[in-house]
Amino acid sequence: MSVDSATAPAEARGLHRDDVRLLVVTGDGVAESPFRELASHLEPGDLVVVNTSATLAAAVDGTRQDGSEVTVHFATELDDGAWTVEVRPRAHAHGPVPDLRVGEVVRLHERRLRVEATAPGQHRLHRARLDGCARELMWDHGRPIRYGYVPQAWPLEAYQTVFATTPGSAEMPSAARPFTPEVVLDLARRGVLVAPLVLHTGVSSQEPGEPPQPERFRVPGSTAALANHVRDHGGRVVAVGTTVTRALESAAVDGVVHAAEGWTHLVLGPQRPATVVDGLITGWHEPGASHLQLLEAVAGRALVEAAYDEAHRRGFLWHEFGDSCLLLP
């Protein structure tokens, strides 16, 4: 089934960020409203948990040893200073270069990136090391990662959410993009709580069937305590995006959220359903298996299928600049 992708930010289409469409899917049915009315679909005492990771200018042009031009996507910074990267042809790329070799050196402006190994369980991601500071390189020469459904380049600010404070994501935690200060104030006026955590996203261009890569996260003690308090008193914990869901569930033990930080390898799905996340705000993406399984871990297969069927029927826009969904099982 074909989908309509949002090819530009809402602001470039004559809208405010919070004017995008919101599909609300519950066990009682389906409703639609502008995203700015999010608070009217929640209850006093509910908790909305957001990701404060900021997006890096993670795409940097370079040249392989054979002279071919490529773009390196810096996906994840590792503990020892190396990075997980994806190397793509610079023009008309629909995937990684097929013949990248361990030991190969890619020149990135005045720096050199050496490929050290293939990332575990991956075909397109590699471990690589730069002879210098990768973040400085991105600051000087990088741009946001952009895929083919977005034909025009947009500045890094277009890929930041209102909550972005801690740089580290290769791609925007896009479920929070429609939030504005006015939406947050409306949540507060209606007695809906908001709490932060951090999960730095990798790249989303994995092959079908590949599990999510490990990602660095931190759940503060204050957020953990608030989530437990809300659930103990009958409120709902609503995650803004699959990143928040993964972080909260990684910090949960026997249905209780704890302060936690480090790397999460958690794969949510039928064998590991959500235990502390009661609802989910998400964008619309052409769903790979791991993405669908994570949605179903929170909302169940029937509700997720109903949401996608209705989104197709109503012509909702896909991807990071598109419309939104609130799943409340």
Task: Walk me through what this model shows.
This protein is an alpha/beta fold. The chain folds into two domains: 4-55 and 153-328, 3-Layer(aba) Sandwich (QueA-like); 59-141, Thrombin, subunit H, CATH 2.40.10. It is built from six helices and 21 strands. It has a nine-stranded mixed β-sheet. Strands 6-7-8-11-10-9 form a six-stranded antiparallel β-sheet, covered by helices on one side. Strands 1-20 form a two-stranded parallel ribbon. A hairpin with a 5-residue loop joins strand 6 and strand 7 (69-77). Helix 5 (289-299) packs across helix 6 (301-314). The longest helix has 14 residues, at 301-314. The mean pLDDT is 94.
Name a few traits of the molecule.
2 domains, six-stranded antiparallel sheet, globular, Thrombin, subunit H, nine-stranded mixed sheet, 6 helices, QueA-like, 329 residues, 21 strands, alpha/beta, 31% strand
Write a compact overview of the structure shown:
This protein has 329 residues and is α/β, with parallel strands linked by helices. The protein has helices spanning 134-141, 181-189, 221-232, 242-250, 289-299, 301-314, and strands at 4-5, 21-26, 29-34, 47-51, 53-55, 59-63, 69-77, 83-89, 105-108, 111-118, 126-130, 166-169, 193-199, 215-219, 237-240, 252-253, 256-257, 260-264, 279-283, 317-318, 324-328.
